[in-house]
Amino acid sequence: MFESKGGVLFLAGVGFFVLAFLFNGVIPMLMFRDMPEQTAEQVVNPRLMYQFTELSRRYPESFRTAFGEPTEENCAQALRLGRQVYLGEGCWHCHSQFVRPVSNESLRFGEVSQPIEYQNELQRPVMFGTRRVGPDLSRQGGRHANDWHAVHFFRPKTLLPDSPMPEYPWLFEGDPSKPNQRGLALITYVQWLGSWLDSYPYYEELQDFEREDDL
Ligand code: HEC
Q1: What local confidence, expressed as pLDDT, does residue 214 receive?
Q2: Atom of ligand 1 nearest to the CA of 149
Q3: Beta-carbon count within 10 A of 87 CB
Q4: How far, in Å, CA of 174 to CA of 180, rounded?
């Protein structure tokens, strides 16, 4: 078998699989085995709270019905639900959540993903995705405003006439100005992605926001 070209390729294939499994699976697992998995409550952070509060002001009635007040506990609930909607609507068919350390992906999507970023409840199972019809979403938070997402989820073609992304009108009570609980949760989830990094867009503005007393 090892004299033939096919045999060598087969062995190389198995060998590279084992190597990849070691470096991408076993070693990170050993590195982070003492680190507890974070809960949804623990991954709520000021940048996300800024977005969640902004949602409560932009869509006061829908927000009150869906989540009441914009507290950290309610934000964690929104994240859990948002992740379920992301799963249920099959967003992961077209979007990955993994910036790979190859092909200059970081130039397009942002910082390369680190194993530790997946050590939380909202990554069970991990949302790596299987293919990229649309862009990677791991650094999506803060890139667009909440109302941009509302309009985009309602009808992507309004913003990008050639977009192949499906419409999700059932996340709204009528029009894009009335996102329902699932719609608000999905926007919260998308704004969360990458909010644990200092590279989150509008970070300067967020710091100003935190200084304002009336918020
Ligand atoms: C059929 C494939 C497909 C599905 C399913 C899909 N998308 Fe998209 N998505 C795209 C494509 C293509 C783009 C780029 C064009 C655009 O912005 O509409 C995109 C863009 C986006 C963007 C904007 C990215 C950016 O940086 O501008 C977000 C956010 C997004 N999708 C979230 C979602 C969510 C959440 C779901 C599930 C509810 C979803 N997508 C389902 C294909 C898809």
Answers
A1: 47
A2: 29
A3: 12
A4: 9
